[in-house]
């Protein structure tokens, strides 16, 4: 069902498409139910159901590194069903080369009523995985 005003897609330019694809295959495909929607030499997109999709494109302008505190995108947040699923994702994260954020305050770095895991993608974009339902 199409919802008026719903986000259609987000496009993000990245430093290393191969590293980005490896990360988002792990996160979006393996854990959050997305599938690859489109793929071409300089990009890939992921979609959940028939709704909003996320596009990653290899940037040609690599001089300035990404900084989430500059003007622009700060982070992407995704729902994950259940606190146990978020805990399992965190355990798996410990075996991978990705950086957890706010580890000392897990799972309540976002506040006492907000169960979430924070990590960085290969470009240091903050990713928030929010436990919902159960």
TrEMBL record:
Q: Which domain of life is it from?
A: Bacteria
Q: Where is the VOC domain?
A: 6-132
GO MF terms on file?
A: lyase activity
List the keywords (alphabetical). Answer: Lyase
**Listed InterPro entries:** Fosfomycin_Res_Enzymes, Glyas_Bleomycin-R_OHBP_Dase, VOC_core
**Database matches in Gene3D superfamilies:** 2,3-Dihydroxybiphenyl 1,2-Dioxygenase, domain 1
Protein name, as recorded: Lactoylglutathione lyase
């Amino acid at each position: 069902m199409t919802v008026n005003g719903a986000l259609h897609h987000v496009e993000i330019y990245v430093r290393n498409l191969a590293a980005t694809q490896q990360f988002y295959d792990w996160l979006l495909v393996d854990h959050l139910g997305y599938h690859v929607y489109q793929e071409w030499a300089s990009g890939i997109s992921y979609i959940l159901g028939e709704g909003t999709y996320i596009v990653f494109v290899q940037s040609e302008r690599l001089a300035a590194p990404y900084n989430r505190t500059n003007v622009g995108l700060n982070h992407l947040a995704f729902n994950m069903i259940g606190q146990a699923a978020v805990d399992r994702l965190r355990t798996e994260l410990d075996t991978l080369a990705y950086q957890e954020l706010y580890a000392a305050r897990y799972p309540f770095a976002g506040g006492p009523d907000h169960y979430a895991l924070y990590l960085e993608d290969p470009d240091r974009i903050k990713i928030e995985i929010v436990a919902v339902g159960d």
